[in-house]
Design a protein that fits this description.
This protein has 148 residues and is α/β, with parallel strands linked by helices. The chain has four helices and five strands. It has one domain: YqgF/RNase H-like domain (Nucleotidyltransferase, domain 5, 2-Layer Sandwich). A hairpin with a 3-residue loop joins β1 and β2.
């Protein structure tokens, strides 16, 4: 099953997709937000291209586990995704995923200007990989598929 991962922000949406076995996530694009319809159409293109069956969207919980105002925006966007694409949308805790992505890009020596475009798609990959890893843990050693 192909799963699309999204890191939703006010200016950009990071996009990641997993392999067909659902084991590894890879950031594939950063959508520069224009308006609601353009954003959804760009996401529709990735859904068609990768034959996506599920969407995982980063859900920015506070450190105490509670939902903040950004979660309300994610909830509204997730409902639009569900309505538009008739796909299940899972909200996944994204706490510090952007900071982690920025740190990785800094470590590899990417210049600040280039990081701006890469950080969102890398954060989407981190979010999606976290979700995939949790599925792997739930399957257990005798589960139906092989996990790393």
């Amino acid at each position: 099953m192909r799963i699309l991962g999204l890191d939703y922000g006010s200016r950009r949406i990071g996009v990641a997709v997993c392999d067909e076995l659902g084991m590894t996530a890879q950031g594939v694009a950063t959508i520069i937000r224009k308006n609601r319809e353009a954003d959804l159409e760009a996401i529709a293109g990735f859904i068609r291209l990768y034959a996506v069956e599920k969407i995982v969207i980063g859900y920015p919980l506070r450190f105490d586990g509670s939902a903040g105002t950004q979660c309300e925006k994610i909830d509204r966007f997730a409902k639009r995704l569900e309505s538009r694409f008739s796909l299940p949308v899972t909200r996944w805790d994204e706490t510090l995923s952007t900071k982690e992505a920025e740190g990785i890009l800094r470590e590899i020596g990417m210049r600040r200007k280039k990081r701006k475009g890469a950080v969102d798609r890398l954060a989407a990959g981190i979010i999606l990989q976290g979700y995939l890893d949790s599925l792997c843990e739930k399957r257990g050693p005798n589960g139906p598929s092989v996990c790393p």
